[in-house]
């Protein structure tokens, strides 16, 4: 009995341990994923990704903070051309989180401007070795508007 290459590749990919594209940006250890940001110890300003210097007051003491997991989709675009092995097309959007910071992220599902979205983890591509590439994504909350 022969197996098609697609099935073998899918089976190998399903068995592979996922790899996060930027593991320093997300903390999924506590069950629900959280974005890891910087918080200025002098003025409290947030930065994502975590910056070495505060953009608000230029202080260099930046601590770690977890960002809110929900927000509102500010804008988005559909991307049709991406690096090799990325899933296309995909939606890329700006999300205004409830704690006052705007982040750029993949948007799963059908995006709606001013629609509520929730943080999750999703597959954004596959490495050359067949490993699923994972990242933080936001998913529309059905029936919710800002």
Q: What features would you highlight for this structure?
A:
146 residues, mainly beta, 10 strands, 47% strand, disordered N terminus
Can you characterise this structure?
- The chain has about 150 residues and is mainly β.
- It has two domains: about 25-65; about 70-145, OB fold (Dihydrolipoamide Acetyltransferase, E2P) (Beta Barrel), CATH 2.40.50.
- Helix content is about 10%, strand content about 45%.
- The protein is built from one helix and ten strands, in the order αββββββββββ.
- It has one helix at about 5-15; strands at about 20, 25, 35-40, 45, 60-65, 70-80, 90-95, 100-105, 115-125, 130-145.
- The strands form two sheets. The protein has a five-stranded mixed beta barrel. Strands 2, 3, 4 and 5 form a four-stranded antiparallel sheet that branches.
- Strand 9 (about 115-125) and strand 10 form a beta hairpin.
- The longest helix has 11 residues, at about 5-15.
- The radius of gyration is 18 Å and the shape is globular.
- The termini are far apart.
- Residues about 1-15 have low confidence and may be disordered.
Question: How would you briefly describe this protein structure?
Answer:
With 146 residues, this protein is mostly beta strands. Helices cover 8% and strands 47% of the residues.
The quaternary structure here is single chain
**Outline type:** globular
Strand order of the largest sheet: 6-7-8-10-9
From the N-terminal CA to the C-terminal CA, the straight-line distance is: 55 Å
């Amino acid at each position: 009995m022969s197996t098609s290459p697609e099935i073998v590749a899918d089976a190998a990919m399903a068995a592979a341990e996922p790899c996060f594209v930027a593991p320093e940006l997300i903390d999924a250890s506590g069950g629900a994923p959280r974005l890891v940001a910087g918080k200025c110890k002098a003025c409290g300003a947030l930065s994502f990704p975590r910056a070495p210097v505060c953009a608000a007051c230029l202080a260099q003491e930046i601590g770690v903070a977890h960002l809110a997991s929900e927000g509102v989709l500010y804008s988005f675009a559909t991307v049709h051309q991406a690096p090799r092995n990325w899933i296309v097309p995909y939606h890329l959007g700006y999300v205004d989180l409830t704690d006052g910071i705007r982040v750029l992220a993949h948007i799963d599902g059908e995006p709606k401007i001013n629609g509520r979205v929730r943080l999750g983890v999703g597959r954004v591509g596959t490495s050359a070795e067949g490993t699923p590439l994972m990242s933080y994504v936001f998913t529309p909350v059905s029936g919710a508007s800002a």
